[in-house]
């Protein structure tokens, strides 16, 4: 397997999964998962993002930069909330999909480590599962850039993995995300855990244990071995039929899980910083 190259990885996903679903979720969520699963994850992420935006307390018309905008799902929703959203992504394929999905021209090509914007340009910067895909040595540079383009008094919403393993993800624990961001001049307002999915995680863990493969994500994508359209085995269909039950039940009990479990037990952390 070739070494992970972020730009190539996302360009390939944009091309291979561009028609997987009408909402454009597959290239930016779990490309190998059924549509219903990505819709469920997107719904949960949107709920968490609304909670973070409530903390940020943005006025109508505030300028928001969505870093790693992907297929444009957050740009579209920011616009529906009355915010002036701009998206930046490193791959032309993703930007083309964002243009189709979000119906906006406010898009720019660029990487998180070198954002093509002036200092203090935005009232809010959102980063939803982006820096976690940047190799760890370059993550501080990306955080510094996002804080650089943020206005004094503005908010950084950082939505990142705090656990997990895979060839294309580089999570940190919650304390590390906070420490790294605060080293560039922002202050944590609050943070909370997102995506506990207790029953579903237990089922996946059991399956991975039976297969002897707990080192990679259940939705891992190896670009050199992408399946053809409609490819599915009987075991895969059974697996996803069971997960439809476990994931749905887990989603239904998610708010309860958030109350009884420490935030650090979640898959992601949602951090809101003030500059």
Q: What does it look like?
A:
The structure is a single chain. The protein has 275 residues and is an alpha/beta fold. It has one domain (6-196, 262-274): Rossmann fold. It is 40% helix and 17% strand. The protein has nine helices and seven strands; from the N terminus they run H-H-E-H-E-H-E-E-H-E-H-E-H-H-H-E. The protein has helices at 6-16, 35-56, 73-80, 92-102, 139-148, 174-182, 198-211, 234-252, 254-260; strands at 63-67, 84-89, 107-109, 122-128, 150-161, 187-194, 268-274. Strands 3-2-1-4-5-7-6 form a seven-stranded mixed beta sheet, sandwiched between helices. Helix 1 crosses helix 4 and helix 2 runs parallel beside helix 8. It is globular and about 50 Å long. The model is unreliable at 220-230 (pLDDT under 50).
In short:
The chain is an alpha/beta fold.
CATH topology: Rossmann fold
CATH class reads Alpha Beta
* pLDDT < 50 stretches: 220-230
In helices, the fraction of residues equals 40-55%
Radius of gyration: 18 Å
- Count of β-strands: 7
Strand content: 15-25%
Query: What spatial form do the alpha-carbon principal axes imply?
Result: globular
Mean pLDDT: 90
Sheet with most strands: strand arrangement: 3-2-1-4-5-7-6
Query: What order do the SSEs take from the amino end to the carboxyl end, as H and E?
Result: HHEHEHEEHEHEHHHE
The CATH homologous superfamily name equals Vaccinia Virus protein VP39
